[in-house]
Design goal:
alpha+beta; 2 helices; 4-stranded mixed β-sheet; 137 residues; 3-stranded antiparallel β-sheet; Nucleoside Triphosphate Pyrophosphohydrolase; single chain; 7 strands; 18% helix
Length: 137
């Protein structure tokens, strides 16, 4: 049996601190190189979307998170210029001070207080807005 061609599976994570800032990375590679984005990436074979979220946050920011809460599934075919991807997005609120360190695909990682004034890559503004509506900032 031939398997159907399907979208690639990704995950994104909205992380808030106690001051309402959002943790964003600056993308190191295209597409959107240099743009702000949520930490996230492709789900590996044999990995749950939750585990992928936790791994990607650790790889891109150096932070350890747990118990990500579902924000939603984002599947619009044009959301990624590389091809059709479906992202399962999560949110986490950190209650302790955390100093992110860029790694992996991130040129930098930092807490952005005025995140409403920037235009992040992909559909990440929509994901952040949905996370705020569901879980608060």
């Amino acid at each position: 049996m031939t398997l159907p061609q399907t979208p690639l599976l990704t995950t994104d994570c909205v992380i808030f601190n106690d001051q309402g800032a959002v943790l964003l990375i600056r993308r190191k590679h295209p597409p959107f190189a240099g743009s702000y984005a949520l930490p996230g990436g492709f789900v590996e074979i044999g990995e749950t979307v939750e585990a992928a979220c936790i791994r990607e946050v650790r790889e891109e920011t150096g932070l350890y998170i747990s118990e990500p809460k579902l924000v939603g599934v984002y599947s619009r075919p044009g959301r990624d210029p590389r091809g059709h991807t479906v992202s399962v997005a999560f949110a986490v609120k950190l209650t302790r001070a955390a100093d992110p360190q860029a790694g992996s695909d991130a040129a930098s990682a930092s807490w952005i207080v005025d995140w409403q004034k920037i235009t992040p890559a992909f559909d990440h503004a929509e994901i952040i807005a949905d996370a705020v509506a569901l879980h608060g900032a």
